[in-house]
Amino acid sequence: MTFPAPLSESARDEIRRLLHGPCDPSALSALATLRKALADTPGTAEDGPGAGRAAGMREPVHGPGRGPLLLRRLRALAEALPPGAGLLDDPARLAAVHAHAAVADPSLCLAGLVHHLLCLGSLTELSDDHQGLEPRLSALREGRAKGVYLITEAGRANSHLATATRAELDPADGSFVLHTPDPRADKFGSAGTWGVEQTGVVLARLFAGGADRGVFAFMVGLTDEQGPLPGVELSSPVALDALPLDYVHVRFHRVRVPFAHWLSDGARIDRDGTVHDPAGSPEQRLQRTLRVGQGLWAAMPAVAAATSRRSAVRAVTYARQRRTQSRLAPGVPLLTYRAQQTVVLGALADAFALTCAADGALAVRTAVPAPGAQGGEAMGFTPWAAVSQPLAAYKAVTVRTAARLTAECQHRCGFSGQLTVNRLAAYQGFHHAFDTAGGDSQLIFYDIGRTLVEQEQEQEQTQTQQEQTRGHAPEPVPDPASPHWWPAVIHRHEDDLVRELRKRGATDTARDPFERWNPLLEQAGLLGEARATRLMADDVTRVLGRLRDPGLVRALTPLAALHGVLAARRWAGSLLTLGTLEPADVAALSGAADRLCDAVMEQLPLLLAVFGDDEPDGTDAAPLAAPDVNAAMAATLTWTRGAAS
After folding, report:
1. DSSP string, 564-578
2. What distances in angstroms separate CA 401 from CA 85, 86, 435, 552, one per listed residue?
3. Which of 187, 241, 307, 636 is a good FRET partner for 644, with 20 to 30 A between their CA atoms?
């Protein structure tokens, strides 16, 4: 990584910590090796969605060699992680490795997230007998087989709450019979990679002694080098151009699953078929089975931050170079215009906020639980927030922010932003798809809002006292040019949203829950989003306060404040409706944004060095990353001239 000369070594260490989390030097060295490996192995995205033949299932989905190529790239990811059984032991390193994969190839990143954090994560966290999972477990760890996670059932809404795939205990030998009872229970996932061994973690409803024992995970062999294994049926490819992977529907026809491949998570079965489950209830069983999602949610903010930093820097670079022929000022760079500054410098500010949120998510993931603390909360509309409210919130707010940010950068780069080689379309598609994948973000916000309203009585009384106090003397907030302004505003707005939902009957337990919440879901989702936005706002000031280098603090302070001012403008309707801000406060935000853009422009060389391409070996071939965008684009072209007549 190349930085301006005045930066001290301590400042460079702070930057590395900011961008890559608390990774040790060996991990940073492994990331450099990973970058080279991914550059030497062509990306899967270049194959293009639907590159293979879709007629019949005797042909690979994405053409010859697609499966082995993907395995080589998964092995490159594995080699950048701790070896063997310790592969998942370092959340910061997991996040950094997948963030690097996302910058190089979002499709590879998704394959890696599913492989490592969902498939291997389930095998590691939920199995009581790792030895019984061999040799498939070692093949997955070493990247000799591809891991798949099958939870979604294509024919049902909220299928995770009503899993229909059955795993029936055979008392004769203790094995399980996995079966898809009807087409609506078809699993949907990225299991269509032919020519390689694929192992799936399949969520199914366990039946023992004729009774439903709840949803457990099972390790199931899906394919080998020749195709589907006996009893496994794969559909023709299902295209998803925004995030091209080998998606298919999967059916199971009475597949025999050994007892050792049941990821029992502490449960046991007596000889008479009686199941003893420490979860205590089907609801808690589902939450425990899904807790593997916490690893994914902890990594996603780092992925969102890395792709957003790259997108923002490319948009700024383009705006500095591209000269407009507008009648207002012919020949000036796009970045001269306030309208362009607000968007692309705002993208840089939001990328910084996402970087801080990545730090916050990892802190939650690695925190030591309080003695006697129980995992999860009571399940609401969905299980996601009940598994881990803060990590679910981080996932939802960071992927949604990154999707918006990358779309804006893509738009502001004109036709160059649409070109595949510049990857902005791939980044936007990745995060837009992840808004529903990995736990639907809107459902997460609904549940968080509901939880914040339906709090313990003691908390409700405390909040009521705070509201009464604020009613007599509104809390002062700092100036919008301060990084502390937006956290104070969004904290206050969250309280206002809670109060408004209570006024509208959200806590009226005499009413049917559906009748009570159905007209309030939009407001509950807004409250949930406010809580997630507050987490990110707090992370910005926390990370900024941790920095010690004066030059770095001076450069990042206006960026942090700009993030807050632009966030307030996006929230203006809700802030005004509930009186959190007055019209004059909102009217002043445009002037504050202009002043902060001026301050950011003064620090732009350092900011671009901090957030820009950290690949001095030139592995990033995107023209938008080049000092001369036009020359770099021209270098990618070959020409054919027609013969003279």
Report:
1. HHHHHHHTHHHHHHT
2. 34, 32, 10, 24
3. 636
Return d(Cα 85, Cα 92) in angstroms, integer.
Answer: 17
Say how many Å lie between the first and final Cα of the chain, rounded.
53
pLDDT in tens, 365-396: 998 665 444 455 677 778 888 899 999 999 99
Report in angstroms the alpha-carbon separations of 91 from 69, 140, 169, 384: 26, 18, 35, 20
- Candidates 363, 357, 334, 336; CA nearest to 405 is 357
Bridge partners for 249 per DSSP:
188
Specify the pLDDT at position 33.
85
Query: What is the Cα–Cα distance from 126 to 120, expressed in whole angstroms?
Result: 10
Q: Order of strands across the sheet with 232-234? A: 187-189, 248-252, 232-234
| Residues 562, 600 contacting (CB under 8 angstroms) | yes
The Cα 480–Cα 440 span in angstroms is 33
CA distance 630 to 625: 11
Contact 298, 394 (CB under 8 A): yes
The candidate with the shortest Cα–Cα distance to 122, out of 145, 88, 154, 99, is 88
562 SS3 class: helix
Confidence check: pLDDT of 5 > 60? no
Which structure tokens are listed for 638? 């070959």
pTM above 0.85, yes or no: yes
Cβ neighbour number for residue 573 with a 10 Å cutoff? 9
How many Å apart are CA 539 and CA 354, to the nearest integer? 9
The share of the chain scoring above pLDDT 90, in percent, equals: 63
pLDDT of residue 46: 40
Give the ranges where 214-292 is alpha helix by DSSP (H).
282-289
- Measure the CA angle with vertex 177, ends 175 and 179; round to 5°: 160
Output the CA–CA distances (angstroms, integers) from residue 238 to 15, 55, 100, 112, 193, in the order listed.
42, 12, 27, 20, 12
* Number of Cα atoms under 13 Å in the Cβ half of residue 483: 22
CA-only gyration radius of the chain, Å: 26
> What sign for the dihedral angle of Cα 538, 543, 549, 553?
negative
Mean pLDDT of the residues in the chain:
87
Q: How far is CA 424 from CA 38, 58, 102, 353, 405, in A?
A: 18, 34, 12, 19, 10
Contact 610, 555 (CB under 8 A): yes
453 near 497, Cβ under 8 Å? no
